[in-house]
Amino acid sequence: MKKLITTLKNIWAIEDLRKRILYTLGLVLVYRIGSYVVLPGVDPSQLTGLQNQTRDGILGLLNMFSGGAFSHASIFALGIMPYITASIVIQLFVMVIPYFQKMQREGESGRRKMNQITRVLTIAITVVQAPAYITNMIYQLGATPTAIYPFDGSSPGFFFWLSCIIILTSGTLFVMWLGERITDKGVGNGISLLIMVGIIARLPFALFGEFASRMEEAGGGLVMFIIELVVLLVVILLCILLVQGTRRVPVQYAKRIVGNKQYGGVRQYIPLKVNAAGVMPIIFAQAIMFIPITVMGFNHSDSAILTAFSDFNGFWYNLVFGLMIIAFTYFYTAISINPNQMAEDMKKNGGFIPGVKPGKKTAEYIEGILSKITFPGSIFLAIVAVLPAIVSLMGVNSQFAQFYGGTSLLIMVGVILDTLQQIESHLLMRHYDGLTKTGRIKGRNSMSISA
């Protein structure tokens, strides 16, 4: 406890770090307040149908990423998801389009161009998603005069639609701006931090709900609640191992004499992460799994397949879900890490892996290591993804079960580790001890889901 108090004093003593933390907290507060500002013309007391719709499935995922703004018909209802979608599209373009590959090699100027293209694409995606959101919202509200107060009559008219589209688009752009400001002048990755705050905001309600259910006559009592917390702690520790696990590949650089100074001649390491794909495989798999349910629902099908895939805690749903996560982990790792480019850059800088020829052999060696470490990483990621369904079958409240794994837990662990590492770097630069007594926070978080 004394060590913690000393660390907090050291953090507060650094003026730059103190300003960054307060700046971050201020922008997060603005984001959370905006999440409860309802679209003009919508009665917030009539949103029960929309809130029930966003409990599970892809809409539940969107609601989680927006911090509950999606179910509240907030001005931030679409949240940061259009920006994340645009970032993923740009990443895919870099893999297949030479123009974007060239832009990526241009350094800082290329990065600014890609960021500008991402922003424009975000606007386009938001303009497309906003009408779909409004249509769904009107359907859930029933378009009754008591639920919606349009500007031109008893039914939603042109000005109601136009104003909502403009507000939703502006809200997404404002949230994107908040994230970029936090990244530049605050602490941590702003986009990921805003998503994490929305997830954590649900934790107290889920925790109190689970505690109340356990205190009931047939709930198991306080002992069962404590056991659940211990299991949750163990799962968090395992997720930290997944996030931070790396395979270090040694790289030797040749010696160079420039004037009276010697450069190179030292051994460095390439950290290849066990889970280089982060949470993206889970997001992709959840989106794909929701497609057949939606299509069959539109056709009013009552088949066994629809029944099986509608049960999010069922065996077949989670089996297919886990297999898809394994496949998407390999896919996303392949498009995000290019062994050929790594081998080429290493060769240009005079580096080589001891015992491996530069060039093609180096690329094959790195690709082989990636294949070996991606398999256990994908299996572990699939297990983490289906853990909420497993604990739900054991009697845990569905809201609290979401924190036992899946996207929620991985984002929380990854973003918190990344933020703590940045705080620790500020402390170490000013000759203070780190955040931990036994050693520094090692590795670098890869769970950021923005570009």
List keywords for this structure.
5 strands; two-stranded antiparallel ribbon; three-stranded antiparallel beta sheet; Preprotein translocase SecY subunit; mainly alpha; 451 residues; 2 domains
Structure, described:
With 451 residues, the chain is mainly alpha-helical. It folds into two domains: 1-199, Preprotein translocase SecY subunit (Orthogonal Bundle), CATH 1.10.3370; 202-404, SecY subunit domain (Preprotein translocase SecY subunit), CATH 1.10.3370. 66% of the residues lie in helices and 5% in strands. The protein is built from 18 helices and five strands. The chain has helices spanning 2-13, 15-34, 48-53, 57-65, 81-96, 98-104, 108-141, 158-185, 190-200, 203-214, 221-244, 280-298, 304-310, 315-336, 339-348, 360-393, 398-401, 406-429; strands spanning 246-253, 256-258, 261-263, 267-273, 351-352. A three-stranded antiparallel beta sheet has the order 4-1-5. Strand 2 (256-258) and strand 3 form a beta hairpin. Helix 9 (190-200) crosses helix 18 (406-429) and helix 15 (339-348) packs across helix 16 (360-393). The model is unreliable at 444-451 (pLDDT under 50).
